[in-house]
Request: fold
Amino acid sequence: MLFSNIKAKWKRRALVSFLTFLLAIPTFAQSSEVPSSNLETMLIVVLSFVLIVAILILIIGLYLVSIIRMILLEDKKQKALAAGEEFDPSKEKSLWSKMMNKATDAVPVEEEESVMLDHDYDGIHELDNHLPPWWKWLFYVTIIWSIIYLLAYHVFDALPLMEEEYTIVMEDARIAHEARMALAGNNIDENNVEFSDSPEVMANGKAIYDRECVACHAPEGQGLIGPNFTDNYWVHGGSINDIFRTVKYGVPQKGMISWQSKLTPSDMRDVSCYIMSFVGTTPQNPPPPKAAEGEEYIPEDQNQTSEEPAEQPAEI
Ligand code: HEC
Reply:
């Protein structure tokens, strides 16, 4: 009686702590700061619920199995009693031990003689046991898996191979990086903008220029409706800050629109830097460059692009 009381208490305690654990899973998922998107958080929550349900189903399944076993034992007992035989429930093998027997196919120590070979190495004998079935099953599973793998990866191309997977991951990282950079670029303004001729800036600047500005400023910056960018004369100033300001706010009354609602700050920085790379170049294709307009820009510090390339020392 006392024993069964303790057992019941234990069961209750285990149940309570288990339920607390289950309830805590979604809290973990929510409190972790790691998920970068809502989708990820949702995925974690859904997965934890699936896990909870799976565990509950497993528990219920085990419980049902134990009930079935009890019913079967009871049935056997009734039959044995009816036939007037002795019935000892402790001699009945449990489902688990039956399963283990099937999985290992081990010969009990008492029956070892039946598989003993006549090999005798200084008194050490050899047993002729079967390969354990669990091991063979594992082997068959690997064969089945290899077929699935072959079909999925090489025949139907349903899943990405290592190299492709690498490219996908790198592409994801690039997109995430770009998003971060765009966010970082959002606090660039005409006061803190800095010139850069890094390949990324130039490539992005060129892409924007070719898309948005080419119609009025010509492909090589020679000027069309808008002024020429290849000379060092500027109507609104030739420093990176001036150019950024012109691009951002535009000169609406003269036909140069404001770009701040169409381009992000970092895009405006990139295209401004790209424009500065036209200074000093000679356009090769029509239309012919427009005449210089505005005032010559003389940089205050020599780090600007308009800096003349250093003269090569004459060869002797
Ligand atoms: C619809 C035609 C048009 C488009 C498109 C256009 N511009 Fe202009 N842009 C002009 C005109 C016209 C001026 C001259 C304004 C003035 O004289 O004050 C100008 C002037 C400028 C200037 C000042 C030049 C100076 O001498 O100070 C810059 C810089 C400039 N544009 C950059 C850009 C950039 C960058 C783009 C693309 C994102 C762009 N423009 C797109 C028409 C255009």
Observations:
- Residues 31-35, 303-310 have pLDDT under 50 and may be disordered.
